[in-house]
Amino acid sequence: MVYGAKWFEPTVQHLTAYVKSQNQKVSGQVKLKLYKGSLQVVALSLPNSLFNHNLATFNKNYAFNQNSSAGFIEIYNLAQKIAYNLQFKPQFYLTAYSKDMKID
Question: 82 is in which domain, residue-wise?
Answer without folding.
Answer: 65-104
